[in-house]
Design a protein that fits this description.
Layout lengths: L3 E4 L3 E3 L4 E7 L6 E9 L6 E7 L4 E3 L7 E5 L5 E6 L8 E11 L2 E6 L3 E6 L1
Length: 119
């Protein structure tokens, strides 16, 4: 069972920056994708950004141009650089790892790290 530990959240003023980190307890041997989703008050959990093993990235429309996702070479650590933060970015950010094991998609989630952006 892969464990994900995410960290780096905190309180920041609008326009500021934060860097989130997520470390997986083991390096996945499967085709996989890591990323971040967030739960904001009154909304469903939404995908923020994700990155594949080859470095291919995807961003949600609301964070394009402000957030950057990256991954280390072994592939078990993912980072989310967040800049020009806005109050609407406030929420709990969850790291995730999706593994494609044959035809089965397995999901792992971190415990979440809260981000609060004050206006």
């Amino acid at each position: 069972q892969v464990q994900l530990v995410d960290s780096g959240g905190g309180l920041v003023q609008a326009g500021g920056s934060l860097r989130l980190s997520c470390v997986a307890s083991e390096t996945s041997l499967w085709v996989n994708r890591m990323g971040w989703a967030r739960q904001t008050p009154g909304k469903q959990r939404e995908e923020v950004a994700s990155i594949g093993l080859l470095g291919d990235t995807h961003y949600g429309d609301s964070v394009k141009g402000r957030f950057t996702i990256s991954r280390d070479k072994p592939g078990n650590t993912v980072y989310l650089e967040m800049s020009d933060l806005k109050p609407e970015d406030t929420g709990v950010y969850y790291c995730h790892l999706y593994e494609l094991r044959g035809l089965e998609l397995i999901e792992f989630w971190g415990q979440g790290t809260p981000v609060t952006v004050s206006s």
